[in-house]
Design goal:
- This protein has about 100 residues and is an all-alpha fold.
- The chain has 5 helices and no strands.
Length: about 100
């Protein structure tokens, strides 16, 4: 069993920033015929703890205010993408996608 880890505010923002980055990646992917590695290449849904550790490591040593600025920019980009897309395009399931999400 993995040891518990105390996380700090930077880790929390890094986690949010990384998930926002993935959402933007998935939105970009939705415009292509490519198959996505869900949730990300090299990670499975049942290993999200390891995924979180990657997020923390990706942003380790970054300044809190810089992380918040990047998080705000990512959130703005997501809101923009949602606003320019139709409800149908945001909710459509492409062939094979259900298997990616639920297998």
């Amino acid at each position: 069993m993995p040891r518990a880890r105390i996380i700090n505010a930077c880790d929390l923002v890094a986690d949010l920033l990384s998930w926002n980055g993935l959402i933007l990646k998935w939105l970009a992917w939705s415009e292509t015929p490519a198959r996505i590695d869900f949730p990300e290449t090299g990670y499975k849904r049942n290993a999200l703890g390891a995924f979180a550790q990657k997020f923390y490591a990706d942003h380790q040593g970054r300044d809190y205010d810089d992380l918040l600025g990047d998080l705000n920019r990512a959130k703005t980009a997501i809101v923009y993408q949602v606003n320019i897309r139709s409800n149908v395009s945001l909710s459509i399931v492409r062939p094979g996608m259900a298997n990616i999400l639920w297998d």
